Amino acid sequence: MKNDKQKTRDRILDAAEELFAQKGHEGVSVRQIMAKAEADVSLAYYHFKSKRDLFDQVMLRRADILNDIRLKALEAVEKRHPADAPTVEEIIDAFTHPLLDLLAREHDEWKYYFRLIAQVNNSPEWGGELMTRYFDPLVERFVQALRKALPDCEDADLFWSYHFLSGALTLTFAETGRIDNLSGGTVKSSDLASVVERMPKFLAAGFERLCK
Amino acid sequence: MKNDKQKTRDRILDAAEELFAQKGHEGVSVRQIMAKAEADVSLAYYHFKSKRDLFDQVMLRRADILNDIRLKALEAVEKRHPADAPTVEEIIDAFTHPLLDLLAREHDEWKYYFRLIAQVNNSPEWGGELMTRYFDPLVERFVQALRKALPDCEDADLFWSYHFLSGALTLTFAETGRIDNLSGGTVKSSDLASVVERMPKFLAAGFERLCK
DNA sequence: ACTAGTATTCAACGATCGTTGAAATTATAC
DNA sequence: GTATAATTTCAACGATCGTTGAATACTAGT
Q1: Distance between CA B162 and CA B157 in Å, rounded?
Q2: How much is the average pLDDT of A17-42?
Q3: Cβ(B74)–Cβ(B91) below 8 Å
């Protein structure tokens, strides 16, 4: 039953994604994952080579989708500007908007994956290698576009600006609720429409001041 | 031997800090910590109530120092402006500069603590409660100062701006080396002087555009 | 030197960890 | 329907986990 195979493997991936996002790679046992997936412990090692392999597959599963929609968003912006270069805010919007939009519209489907990304990006253990492997080709593409929009910008300013962008974006993904506490309820981390309209403006201003 | 007691306790805290920062709370065992501290496993439970308590004490140990130097930096800026309000960049500089400066000048002493903060801030499990408990009083103080510098700014814009700031700052603390890979070596995450001169400018621009 | 408290060592508890091999079940192809 | 392959179950391995209690060494006050 081909259908069931896929179902079981995906159920394991779903359970692993949620638990990894909440407690981290080492904070969750294979047994806990399989209990949530309602399958025998051994099945983890039938469908995956090891716990680490399962973790990698969780990361991989959705990475291509993200890279795809972001690339398409960038190409759409560039197509709108056949002669001149797009503005910085347009480029940043193409980089962030698809993700925030996805998180907003299919929240239950994507929230755990984004939380996982937030943790991985900020972990010395995983951040360097994993993020580079899965997302850097796309990021380089965006950096190119930004360089064209800011032709006088030095590389150091450009890369540091991207670094600040990355930090702001991933903390938003984490949805820790800290901003909720801090603001006394006037701001909700789950209010992503609120972020979509603010983040590109905020970050574009940073790029432009640093790269002027 | 009062001196040795403090020595042992601190050795345990040092070892725990380094390992927690690298692998996370669940990624490290008490035995590994005590091996690095060169002390018997039981001593962990003589000096601390539990593994979780040890983690909390690691977090607490340096929090007061940070809150203190940042508050002093803010007060210094305000003293320089007896009549008018300080600029946004001055306030953000008071918020970020002391930390980056500390990390730069006493790197070996502080790097693991900052990496730990980066992970905690981006973890749904810890981020909300722990960060709130240790750092929010100071953050509220800074938000007040920013509100005075940006009197027309709505609270939502102000808090979201702080949120972006927080993400950029903590990712810098993480020192994952990802920016090193991405830039092909032109930028080094360890080059903190480079950050000190860029981050306040970048972030102040964001605040000002969003809150204009 | 004796005592009281502090600090450290040693040995062990039950629980849970990641992982595996072999048997049993179910689906697919002829 | 029978053989073959894919999937699932069951039982268990040695290792390591957080934690504890009791015995030992050390320090400080008298």
Answers
A1: 9
A2: 96
A3: yes
- Which residue is listed with tokens 């399989």? A34
What letter represents residue B139's amino acid?
A: V
Distance CA B77, CA B61 (A): 27
Residue A6, CB, strand C, below 7 Å: no
CA distance B91 to B204: 9
Closest Cα in chain A, distance from residue B4 (Å)? 32
| B1-48: CATH number | 1.10.10.60
Quote the minimal CA–CA distance from A114 to chain B in Å: 11
Contact predicate B139/A182, CB 8 Å:
yes
A171, B163 in Cβ contact below 8 A?
yes
**What angle is formed at CA A200 by the lines to CA A199 and CA A205, rounded to 5 degrees?**
100
pTM exceeds cut of 0.85: yes
Q: Which CATH architecture has domain A61-211?
A: Orthogonal Bundle (1.10)
DSSP string, A31-48: HHHHHHTTS-TTHHHHHS
Residue position matching structure tokens 């306790």: B9
Q: Are A57 and A48 in contact (CB under 8 A)?
A: yes
pLDDT of B128 > 90? The answer is no
Q: Give the separation between CA A138 and CA A160, rounded to whole angstroms.
A: 17
Scan for tokens 């046992």, then name that residue.
A29
Asked if A24 and B125 come within 8 Å (Cβ–Cβ), the reply is yes
Residue B2 has pLDDT above 50, yes or no: no
Per the structure block, which two tokens stand in for A69? 């929609």
* Helix (H) or strand (E) segment spanning residue A209: helix A192-211
Q: B170: which chain A residues are within 8 Å (Cβ-Cβ)?
A: 122, 167, 171
Residue range A101-110, pLDDT digits in tens: 999 999 999 9
Q: What is the domain partition of chain A in residue ranges?
A: 1-48, 61-211
Asked if B121 and A176 come within 8 Å (Cβ–Cβ), the reply is yes
A114, two tokens? 């984004």
Using alpha carbons only, what angle is made at residue B61 by residues B60 and B65, rounded to the nearest 5 degrees?
100
Closest CA to A165 of A208, A199, A191, A140: A199
Cβ contact B24:A26 at 8 Å: yes
Q: Which whole-number Å values give the CA distances from B76 to B94, B105, B201, in the listed order?
A: 9, 21, 19
